[in-house]
Amino acid sequence: MTKEEQAPESSEKQQATSLDELQEKLAAAQAEIEELKDKHLRTAAEFANYRKRQERDARQQEQRLKAAAYRSVLPVLDDLQLAVKHAPQGAPNGDWVEGVLLIERKFQKILDDANIKPIETVGKPFDPNLHSALLQVPSNEHPAGHIVQEVKAGYLMGDQVLRPATVVVSSGPEEHSDAPKDQG
């Protein structure tokens, strides 16, 4: 073969090698693009999850702070209700009693607007998640394990117990002994 014949063959080999190199580089670049795209998507998903977690934590913190604030003023409502309960009948200060009743109603409206509801008690089964038992007494009116009396109102804020109700629980009917007493 002459030099002129070898030159096109050599040139073809160089072009083939160059083409193979370019295809390898292209494949490597495409793989890198896919890897970077995957990293970007993962980072975006992690950030979205982080943002959702932060928003959820902020809502929970807000709920905890609201609950603490409302919990701290419940004793004031207790005192208002006690004052209303013990207001003298036909008191000469009727306007004063009406004023206290008005304050109690406003207070109750604020609690209603905040989705704070009293926990049902008397006649209901005792639930340690909602109630705090002060004592247990025999009762012919209420079955064992049911609430006989509410000592202090409990409240729910949505599904969260703001304050458990303090209650007296029935131990069941009073037992009467039919056996004659020993007079011995």
Question: What report would you give on this structure?
Answer:
With 184 residues, the chain is α+β, with helices and mostly antiparallel strands. The protein has 2 helices and 6 strands. The strands form 2 sheets. The chain has a 3-stranded antiparallel sheet. Strands 2-6-3 form a 3-stranded mixed sheet, with no helix packed on it. A hairpin with a 2-residue loop joins strand 4 (155-157) and strand 5. Helix 1 packs antiparallel against helix 2 (94-113). The protein is elongated, with a radius of gyration of 39 Å. 9% of the residues are buried.
Tally of helical segments: 2
Q: What portion of the residues fall into strands of 2 or more residues?
A: 15-25%
What is the global morphology? Answer: elongated
- Low-pLDDT parts are none
> What strand line-up does the widest sheet have?
1-4-5
Average pLDDT for all residues: 85
Instruction: Calculate Rg over CA atoms.
Output: 39 Å
Indicate the structural class.
alpha+beta
Run of helices and strands: HHEEEEEE
The biggest beta sheet is recorded as: 3 strands, antiparallel
In percent, how helical is the residue content? 55-70%
Give the distance, in angstroms, between the N- and C-terminal Cα atoms: 143 Å
Count the beta strands.
Answer: 6
